[in-house]
């Protein structure tokens, strides 16, 4: 039981570093910046900064989020606009360039995953991932962050 949290931490660190090195760096991104683009793509293209932070499930400071949005906005991947309902609220919108880059990243991701997972049977991968997801959800509930749990199933039917 003591090893499991260590395995999760190590897996998270390796996943982030490998993701950056194998996929995201090719596009001038990292895991966190890509998650902003992907979140906006999946949530209708436009969110407030606070909703973006919640939806992207980012445990980062608001200033760090602002810096990432600034960087992506400077690259014309995101656009910051004022809310018509509340001028104090900034909305973040993904641009056509941001959507295109997000799609390119996913193509690269699937190419890399095909290479690195080809020796693992799908059913074994599915079982391992489902066990980790269940443990993470339970830990999230216990830590009071269960509301961050995604509403969609972790696997599609394909």
Short structural description:
The longest helix has 22 residues, at 96-117. β2 and β3 (90-94) form a beta hairpin.
Any guess at the CATH architecture? Orthogonal Bundle
Distance between the amino and carboxyl termini: 33 Å
Helices, by number, come to 6
* Mass-distribution shape: globular
Q: What does the main sheet amount to? A: 3 strands, antiparallel
* CATH class designation: Mainly Alpha
Poorly predicted parts:
none
Share in helix: 55-70%
Within CATH, the superfamily carries the name: Winged helix-like DNA-binding domain superfamily/Winged helix DNA-binding domain
What is the number of independent domains? 1
Based on helices, strands and strand pairing, what is the structural class?
Answer: mainly alpha
Instruction: Count every beta strand, where a strand is a DSSP E run of 2 or more residues.
Output: 3
Question: How large, in whole angstroms, is the Cα Rg?
Answer: 17 Å
Strand order of the largest sheet: 1-3-2
Order of helices and strands: HHEHHEEHH
Question: How much is the average pLDDT?
Answer: 84
Roughly what fraction of the amino acids lie in strands? Answer: 5-15%
Question: What is the CATH topology?
Answer: Arc Repressor Mutant, subunit A
Describe the overall structure.
The chain is mainly alpha-helical. The chain has one domain (9-146): Winged helix-like DNA-binding domain superfamily/Winged helix DNA-binding domain (Arc Repressor Mutant, subunit A). Helix content is 60%, strand content 8%. It contains six helices and three strands. It has a three-stranded antiparallel sheet with strand order 1-3-2. Strand 2 and strand 3 (90-94) form a beta hairpin. The radius of gyration is 17 Å and the shape is globular. The mean pLDDT is 84.
